[in-house]
């Protein structure tokens, strides 16, 4: 089946016509004027040079309405200039009530409730890939790479902006150097461009070029920026040397650490950029939100390392790149414990591999071909054993030298479609596991943007000592993408040997799933609602080998936002019995969970007010069973002033009588009825002295207990049923758990120069895990504080160096 399906994809793609959009006649255009003396970037639009450019206004509403002209009281005008160094943008934004402008001070990439001006630049005018620059009314900068509707705020470049306010409104000046952009290598540049003004206190958003929300994606409605020609951009070379010093105190021991390294960005030409990190230091990355994990799958964590979040949109296509694999737990970490000899103890077993260096090259040609190459090398790691009698030590390698590679080719066409080829490869030195995955993707819209055809064909190859495993997976979907009423169907397939987990993340394989959906939504306000959407969906999940039904379900959900920015919604679903092939941890075995109903709801109040809140809850009820699940999340927030915001979150989870894996004994899989309760408290606070300096507090305490009923043990039968047995849990095989973790980060961040910053961080961590599941919250907290705490104080300084500034300095 897999080979035929792959050929079907190729045949399907070859039968597609070359689609094109008829949007040119509705696109506005703006001509940039070349200058020799740049304006002073101070927010005051009084430089004579600005008069060379003809201002353009005529903004129209995109939210909540559709195409209404901006009122004269809030007229907005933009101008664009350029030289051989950068492009310059000025915006004048009138406001009849300037005291109502929301001026919340925030740090970079955090807009919160400030009003803002936004520029989208698509230097290839391909309808999808663009760079976003935002300046708030208080002067905070934000920048992101856009791929479709996905915003990647991990993308950070160096550019300049200033704002000014008076009794007539507010003004912004922006300088975007060519080093912050990638563009075709040709004489005359024609770029896609969009300007957006967010008037937060009016709950309104206006755009320069009209966006039809009912058809296609916003990036396909950019206007045109013309006039940029014969530019001679400077060398795009930026250096980010860093130094860090840290003192770590734990259990009576104090450790000092000093690091220095370098990040580098080099423009290979106008279109392609090389990013490198040499001797990387990730000591100040945010902590992972670790939880008690008793399931068959690993816990997924977000990426907090800047190098792996910035400009990675090409490498993330197809979902084959889980960046936390690079520098993750050694593949032999768990095996090291199992290989203890008599009278031995482990004195060292690193749970992370060290990243030695990494680089990525990415860009796009003038014909819309995106090319990306990623490479990273990690160091080898060892577990160290000591004989408790002789004192002799030995080592066992847990992770060899490893090389990680990604190669991507992504061809955009017709400003709404793409086809992609991707290959990922992990090679480990010696007789260890290697992995290779290749994928073909297509994402095609028809001429009127009313239908989307998307699909993937992926092949994995895992090379184990003496064994090779090849797997295949595919996806195909057809969706109506125009109008209020929409619908779609999809199919997903993977055989039993599909495995991308050397560099990707995939929990399950061996499936053959079908799904459908239909929805109705509005694009203009109706009555008291600015937006609402109703969805109905269904699914039928099957095992590929053997061919068995896993689950059939259907349901619906609803979302609405009122004119007062109060949002609410919910979901309700009904499901047949569910055959879980992964909870038993045994090949070709499954446990059957009873049919169930799942429901959820949420409400979210207006964030513009000083006090706002979010409430979310979900509940699952399993029929003919005592098994149930309940979750409640409360998230109030209070803005004490324009400088100080505090957000508290409380989350409570209670799962009762869940049939769960316990152990395997004499070819018998043992289950037990588990009660699991979790309480999480977190606090996030931000105090901004100005847009360049601020204090940030992040605190999280997570407590969870899992307790198995003494008379609730059973054995798993071949048909997925559970039969009660007598099972004695002792100190060695006790499945109960009591998990407690405390994290506190307090940091001071100072951007002392463009692209340069100093961060002083204090970190406090306490962790405890035991079998005392009968303890209450207070007793468990006392046990946690009885454990030694880890205190860490670190200072990291990064300095931005532009090669051109150094060159000009020496020349002068």
Automatic annotation (TrEMBL):
<dbReference type="InterPro" id="IPR045670">
    <property type="entry name" value="DUF5916"/>
</dbReference>
<feature type="domain" description="Carbohydrate-binding">
    <location>
        <begin position="41"/>
        <end position="194"/>
    </location>
</feature>
<feature type="domain" description="DUF5916">
    <location>
        <begin position="233"/>
        <end position="810"/>
    </location>
</feature>
<dbReference type="Pfam" id="PF06452">
    <property type="entry name" value="CBM9_1"/>
</dbReference>
<dbReference type="InterPro" id="IPR010502">
    <property type="entry name" value="Carb-bd_dom_fam9"/>
</dbReference>
<dbReference type="GO" id="GO:0016052">
    <property type="term" value="P:carbohydrate catabolic process"/>
</dbReference>
<protein>
    <submittedName>
        <fullName>Carbohydrate binding family 9 domain-containing protein</fullName>
    </submittedName>
</protein>
<dbReference type="GO" id="GO:0004553">
    <property type="term" value="F:hydrolase activity, hydrolyzing O-glycosyl compounds"/>
</dbReference>
<dbReference type="Pfam" id="PF19313">
    <property type="entry name" value="DUF5916"/>
</dbReference>
<dbReference type="GO" id="GO:0030246">
    <property type="term" value="F:carbohydrate binding"/>
</dbReference>
